[in-house]
Specification:
- The chain is α/β, with parallel strands linked by helices.
- It is built from 14 helices and 25 strands.
- The strands form five sheets. An eight-stranded mixed β-sheet has the order 7-6-5-3-2-1-19-20. The protein has a six-stranded mixed β-sheet with strand order 8-9-10-11-12-18.
Length: 563
């Protein structure tokens, strides 16, 4: 990806009294959102999320923000603010706490309720968790924070207004302007206007839907569509969504209750999050509607609804395992209905369509955003963003949360509303922005690489390792083995070839074996047997032949044993 800025150097020390913003994730991608604000020697962190891997990152479980810039400054961190409870904003919190486990965390009740079990799973001591509500003000010197209600696809989302002596910053988090939200909790435009009157020196704005014209449809419009789908379904119903999408689960529960069906929550994160949401009063479930997954098989298929994870085609998620026929409790039968009730995150298209094809092959009727209105976004579209710019009238704008095209589109919207183009800062991960004397300008960059989590390994996977995995997955693997007598150079065991992950039978290599054997004998001179030289000779001959004859570029591992 071409950076918005080339050849940026490490920023100079922050000028006295200035404010610095360091994005460590979420700018140039959809996920791993994390921004650090620096002022008077102290750091405030806003959000700490994960990015889920794409097909080109085999074996990777999660991608974290790059903490390297703040590792040596953890004692300067005065707090961590979490805007809402989605994984792309809270998923990396336990990994940050491994650098310093007593960082005070601020967020809404539901957000912190989702964070706490994550911390326990990593066997970390629970730091101070401060529940905050809209209009509440918190002083974390030198930062003065005021929290603001915003509507999103998860309840209890917050924007945060940060007052400092260098200027005021309004950070929206993820938000939209649904005028009929299920929980009646509107985006607080009155407070946005009040901040505008006070002066917003830097407006950091969600960009995810900046390319989408108009206004997002209300969430409650999904309910009648789901009710219609449920009424028409003759077999069991499987609905896939994010495990933290409480509003969508509420609508599924409502549709199930109205159509005389019972609901089983499938997937550990789905079960945990919805249990928390129900206990805290964010999810209302009619008595008798929920049933344990292990028991739902005792009722007829036309009375079942499975609420599952896996809407992004994740290989180990519940829906993917159902599509592959490997789920412990759920088997997809002809006539079943599967509903994809969430957005399609960029980069996951191939995985999602593969699951849809697998489900269709099994005879399921698949309902998704392409053929029914079963999803509305949780992010403000262009019309809503323009509305906010006109209300806030910021001096400087820094689009956040999105790929480069989203950031650019958001910046263009700001300019249309009258923001000086010079005051729209388009940054990517690691690009440092300073607010000095009321002007926001790029000041340099800090390291900000992908940090991969692979099982228990964190940050140990390099791009070279990923390239090796991609090669193994797409081009295959060939080993060639031979034994040579050390003193005489005599070939004691002729080369043997084995292939893995290639369509061709090993017998196809009989054609090239004589040439591999010849180059091995010609290279293995008496008294000068060098296994490395012999291996490279066999690799060259075999590699050229495979590229020409089989049109493949597999990983080739030659082994020469001396005796």
């Amino acid at each position: 990806m071409k950076p918005l800025y080339d050849n940026l150097k490490e920023p100079a020390p922050l000028a006295k009294g200035a404010l610095r913003v360091i994005p460590l994730g979420g700018l140039g991608e959809v996920g791993r959102n994390m921004n650090v604000l620096e002022h008077n020697g102290k750091l405030l962190i806003v959000d700490c999320g994960v990015l889920f891997p794409e097909e080109t990152q085999p074996g990777v479980d999660l991608i974290l923000p790059d903490f390297s810039w703040i590792e040596d400054r953890m004692d300067d961190v005065v707090g961590l603010v979490l805007t809402h409870g989605h994984e792309d904003h809270i998923g990396a919190v336990p990994y940050l706490l491994k650098l310093r486990n007593d960082i005070p965390i601020y967020g809404s009740e539901l957000t912190l309720a989702f964070v706490e079990p994550k911390i326990r799973e990593h066997r970390l001591p629970t730091p101070e968790l401060h529940v905050v509500t809209e209009h509440e003000r918190v002083s974390l010197a030198p930062f003065d924070l005021e929290f603001v209600a915003v509507t999103h696809s998860i309840p209890d989302a917050l924007a945060v207004f940060v007052r400092t002596s260098a200027g005021n910053v309004l950070i929206t988090g993820d938000f939209k302007m649904d005028q009929l939200p299920l929980d009646h909790r509107l985006t607080d435009l009155r407070s946005f206007a009040r901040f505008g009157e006070e002066g917003v020196d830097l407006f950091m704005v969600d960009s995810t839907n900046a390319e989408v014209p108009g206004f997002i449809a209300p969430e409650r419009g999904i309910g009648p569509v789901l009710d219609h789908v449920f009424a028409d379904a003759t077999g069991q119903i499987i609905v896939a969504s994010f495990s933290s999408h409480v509003h969508r689960v509420q609508q599924v529960v409502n549709a199930a209750a109205h159509n005389g069906r019972r609901v089983a929550l499938v997937g550990r994160s789905m079960e945990r999050n919805m249990r928390i949401a129900e206990e805290r009063g964010y999810l209302t479930v009619p008595e008798g509607v929920l049933i344990e997954t292990s028991k739902i098989g005792d009722i007829p298929p036309d009375k079942r609804v499975y609420m599952a994870t896996g809407s992004q085609g994740e290989p180990m998620a519940a829906l993917s395992r159902m599509a592959a026929g490997s789920h412990r409790f759920v088997t997809i039968d002809p006539g079943d209905t599967v509903v994809f009730a969430s957005s399609l995150i960029p980069g996951n298209e191939n995985s999602v369509y593969r699951v849809i094809n697998d489900l269709t092959r099994l005879g399921a009727h698949v309902v998704h955003r392409g053929n029914a209105k079963v999803h509305v976004s949780g992010h403000a579209s262009a019309g809503e963003l323009i509305y906010c710019y006109n209300i806030v009238q910021p001096a400087n704008v820094m689009p956040i949360h999105g790929e480069v095209r989203h950031l650019v589109a958001n910046g263009q919207l700001a300019v249309k509303t009258g923001v000086d183009p010079r005051n729209v800062v388009l940054a990517e991960d690691g690009v440092v922005v300073d607010l000095v004397d009321g002007l926001a300008r790029v000041a340099g960059s800090v390291p900000c690489e992908y940090v991969y989590v692979d099982g228990r390994s964190i940050g140990e996977i390099s791009e070279d390792e990923l390239e090796t995995r991609r090669t193994l997955g797409s081009e295959g693997f060939i080993s060639v083995y031979a034994v040579v007598e050390h003193d005489t150079g005599t070939v004691l065991v002729k080369p043997t070839i084995r292939a893995i992950g290639m369509a061709e039978d090993d017998g196809v290599f009989d054609e090239i074996l004589p040439e591999v054997d010849k180059v091995l004998r010609d290279t293995a001179a008496p008294g000068r047997v060098d296994p490395h030289v012999l291996q490279q000779a066999m690799r060259r001959v075999l590699g050229r032949w495979v590229a020409r004859r089989l049109r493949r570029r597999p990983m080739i591992v030659p082994v020469v044993v001396e005796q």
